């Protein structure tokens, strides 16, 4: 589990990203890009800098599915489950992925892997599509998933 940020570290993180003209959304994206998630400790400094309430900042973070309030798993799989991908077999692929990884979609971390449903990756003509650790993959079959996932697992073990 990640240690909470100190007040000084949270202030510094906000100071670096809350530049003139930056919106709450751009700042949240920048913070998440840097840290992998939006630490809860930045809510108060962000609210103060942007003259918003803590509830407005927290509400934005929790409303948008993209923002994380905790560090991601070492391997994050996002599977498109929108209509075009559904018509091309994404639900059967979902079942295969759950069996291969031993994890369930949208239920948090399990053994350093997290499976998330998303609803359109903009690859409708190349469905079913997914991302693994942010890298997009199209025309994914169960066999292709196994290769991609196993490669991501090998890579994450090397960098751990």
UniProtKB/TrEMBL annotation:
The keyword Glycoprotein does not apply. The keyword S-adenosyl-L-methionine does not apply. Its cofactor is [2Fe-2S] cluster. Binds 1 [2Fe-2S] cluster. InterPro entries: NADP_DH_HndA-like, NuoE-like, NuoE_N, Thioredoxin-like_sf. GO terms for molecular function: 2 iron, 2 sulfur cluster binding; metal ion binding; oxidoreductase activity. Keywords: 2Fe-2S, Iron, Iron-sulfur, Metal-binding. [2Fe-2S] cluster binds at residues 80, 85, 120, 124. It comes from the Bacteria. Gene3D superfamilies: Glutaredoxin, NADH-quinone oxidoreductase subunit E. Pfam families: 2Fe-2S_thioredx. Belongs to the complex I 24 kDa subunit family. This is NAD-dependent formate dehydrogenase subunit gamma. It comes from Caballeronia concitans.
């Amino acid at each position: 589990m990640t240690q909470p940020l100190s007040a000084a570290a949270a202030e510094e993180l906000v100071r670096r990203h809350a530049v003139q003209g930056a919106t709450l959304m751009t700042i949240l994206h920048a913070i998440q890009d840097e840290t992998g998630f939006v630490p809860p400790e930045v809510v108060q400094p962000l609210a103060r800098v942007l003259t918003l309430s803590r509830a407005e900042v927290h509400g934005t973070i929790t409303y948008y599915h993209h923002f994380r309030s905790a560090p991601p798993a070492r391997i994050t799989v996002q599977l498109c489950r929108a209509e075009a991908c559904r018509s091309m077999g994404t639900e059967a692929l979902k079942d295969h992925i759950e069996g291969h990884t031993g994890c369930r979609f949208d239920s948090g971390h399990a053994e350093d892997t997290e499976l998330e449903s998303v609803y359109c990756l903009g690859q409708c003509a190349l469905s079913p599509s997914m991302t693994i650790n942010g890298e997009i993959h199209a025309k994914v079959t169960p066999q292709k998933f196994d290769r991609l996932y196993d490669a991501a697992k090998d890579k994450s073990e090397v960098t751990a």
